[in-house]
Structures are given as C-alpha cells and as structure tokens.
C-alpha cells in the first residue's frame, strides 16, 4: 500500500463512533495524511454543509463527496454535481404523503445544493433531519418548492431525495422510492434512511469522476465503508476495507476488514498503514 494517493471514507457506521461523533484523534491523522499530499475524502449521504461543519478543522484542501455522490466540493468550490429529475421527485412527494396519511411515521427531505427542505415540522423529525442536514428549511408545500426549482424561480436546485422512517426504512422506502429503482439509483443507507438519485449517481460514480480528475487509479485508492450505499465506492478501490460492524454484503466485496467504528477502526488502520504519529 505504499502508493496510496486517495482515501475515501464513509461516515455513519464507519469513521463516526457509535454515538455518531468524530473521534478526537481524527484531526492529527487527517492533517498528517494531507501534509503527505494524500487526498482524503469524506463520502457520505449527508449534506455538504453538514460535512463542511464536521470537518471545519481540516477544511483547507479537503475534498468532500456528499449526498451519496450527488455533489463533490473542494475548498468550497463545486467540482461536479448531478441532480434528480423533478417529475420523479414530485411523484415521491405524493407517495410519502400517502404513507403519512396511512399512519407511517416517516418524513421526506428534498435535498438541494443550498439547503434541505421538509414539510414535516415536529421536533422529533426536525432533530433527526438537522443532524444530517444542518441547513434545513421548513416549507408549507414541497410540491411548490420543487416546481419553483424546476422553473428557475428558486435560488436552489435539486440534488436528491432522502426519506427517514422512525422504525425501519426498508419496507417504507420500497413503496415510496423503490418503485423507481429500475430507472433511478435507490439506496438504503441504514436502518432508518434511504435515498433516491439519478441513475448515474452513487458514491462509486463520484469516486470514479474524482479519480479521473486527479489522475489516480483504483490501485492507488483506499476505501472504508459499512453499508449498501458504500458498495460502489468500495468497488473503485483495490484497498477496500469493510468495518467489522459492516453489513455482510460489504464484507463480501471488500478485500480487508477494519476494526469496528466503535473501536475507531478507520483510524487504527490509517495509523498502522501510514506509520502516523497520532
């Protein structure tokens, strides 16, 4: 692994600990890697602004892939983005409203470049939404917000949709978003979240675009992940690590196993492989 030039790291269940916090020793590890000229890339389904806040201590020179690959940013400048089409988004809004009317405890997040947008405004949902989407705006009607975006009458533009279910997203998302899985990119990001994106959008496509831009090969790439939305990203790295706590499907496609996120496994591996002081 002497020629690693790119390290892509998922957050929830991977770099973040069991309390969804960044371990304090993250900072000296990333700082030393960046000082060696290695490109370190947090890759998450979370919003860019959330990731920017999380990594503000090492923001200079840091590349971020956000919204499950819908957008990549470096030093606050957009490298590339690929947004979901509006007719599909409008259809999903109707589907989620129907689920809510049937008593399903769920909520939809319309993810734009500038902010996320939600109709549901209760404290329980907003607390969760704003943990993953620091810039979240409550609106009266997501249909109207999307229509304004499509017509160029809104300052924002659509990236993806995210849905949260307080119990289990798998059966809920299969109805609301899964109906579009044949024509779009539908990913389950954990027990509670799923995303719908354009068919050419996932972490793997984003990493491939970044590799091409930087002239870096999969042989020079290391990746860490734990769940299905990391499959594409791991496929773009010859040095792929499944977390010990990862889904079995992630173990099946990964070359190595890292200790669990609760054990700060990503940092353990990075310190050992790169002989870091931290």
Care to describe what's here?
The protein is an alpha/beta fold and 278 residues long. The chain folds into two domains: 151 residues, HAD superfamily/HAD-like (Rossmann fold, 3-Layer(aba) Sandwich), CATH 3.40.50; 112 residues, 2-Layer Sandwich (Hypothetical Protein, Haloacid Dehalogenase-like Hydrolase, Chain: A, domain 2). Helices cover 35% and strands 23% of the residues. Helix 4 runs antiparallel to helix 6. The two termini are 19 Å apart.
Can you count the helices?
11
Q: Indicate the percent of residues in helices.
A: 25-40%
By CATH, the topology of the largest domain is: Rossmann fold
The number of domains is 2
List the strand order in the largest sheet.
Answer: 8-7-6-9-11-10
Mean pLDDT, rounded to whole units?
Answer: 96
Q: Span between N and C termini?
A: 19 Å
Shape: globular
The CATH superfamily name of the largest domain is HAD superfamily/HAD-like
Gyration radius, rounded: 18 Å
What is the N-to-C order of secondary-structure elements (H for helix, E for strand)?
EHHEHEEEHEEHEHEHEEHEHEHEH
Structural class: alpha/beta
Summarize the structure.
This protein is an alpha/beta fold and 278 residues long. Helices cover 35% and strands 23% of the residues. The protein has eleven helices and 14 strands.
Note the topology:
Elements: E1 6-9, H1 11-15, H2 26-35, E2 39-42, H3 48-54, E3 63-66, E4 71-74, E5 77-81, H4 86-101, E6 106-112, E7 116-118, H5 123-132, E8 136-138, H6 142-150, E9 158-165, H7 169-176, E10 185-188, E11 193-197, H8 203-214, E12 221-225, H9 231-235, E13 239-243, H10 248-253, E14 256-258, H11 265-274
Parallel strand pairs: 1-2, 1-12, 7-8, 12-13, 13-14
Antiparallel strand pairs: 3-4, 4-5, 6-7, 6-9, 9-11, 10-11
Helix pairs in contact: 4-6
Protein name: HAD family phosphatase
InterPro entries: Cof (IPR000150), HAD-like_sf (IPR036412), HAD-SF_hydro_IIB (IPR006379), HAD_sf (IPR023214)
GO cellular component, one term: cytosol
């Amino acid at each position: 692994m002497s020629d690693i030039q790119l390290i892509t790291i998922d957050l929830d269940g991977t770099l973040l600990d069991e309390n969804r916090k960044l371990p304090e020793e993250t900072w000296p590890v990333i700082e030393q890697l960046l000082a060696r000229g290695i490109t370190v890339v947090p890759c998450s389904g979370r919003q860019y602004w959330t990731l920017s806040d999380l990594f503000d201590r090492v923001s200079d020179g840091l590349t971020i892939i956000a919204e499950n690959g819908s957008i990549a940013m470096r030093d606050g400048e957009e490298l590339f983005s690929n947004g979901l089409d509006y007719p599909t988004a409008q259809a999903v809004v109707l589907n989620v409203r129907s689920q809510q009317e049937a008593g399903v405890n769920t909520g939809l997040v319309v993810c734009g470049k500038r902010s996320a947008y939600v109709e549901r405004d209760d404290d329980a949902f907003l607390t969760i939404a704003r943990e993953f989407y620091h810039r979240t705006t409550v609106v009266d009607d997501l249909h109207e917000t999307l229509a304004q975006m499509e017509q160029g009458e809104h300052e924002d533009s659509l990236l993806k949709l995210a849905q949260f279910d307080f119990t289990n997203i798998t059966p809920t998302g299969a109805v609301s978003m899964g109906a579009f899985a044949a024509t779009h990119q539908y990913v389950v990001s954990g027990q509670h979240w799923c995303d719908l994106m354009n068919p050419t959008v996932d972490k793997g496509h984003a990493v491939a675009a970044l590799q091409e831009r930087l002239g870096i090969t999969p042989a020079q790439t290391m990746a860490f992940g734990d769940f299905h939305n990391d499959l594409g990203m791991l496929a773009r790295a010859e040095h792929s690590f499944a977390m010990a706590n990862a889904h079995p499907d992630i173990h099946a496609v990964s070359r190595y196993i890292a200790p669990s996120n609760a054990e700060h496994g990503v940092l353990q591996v990075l310190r050992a492989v790169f002989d870091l002081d931290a």
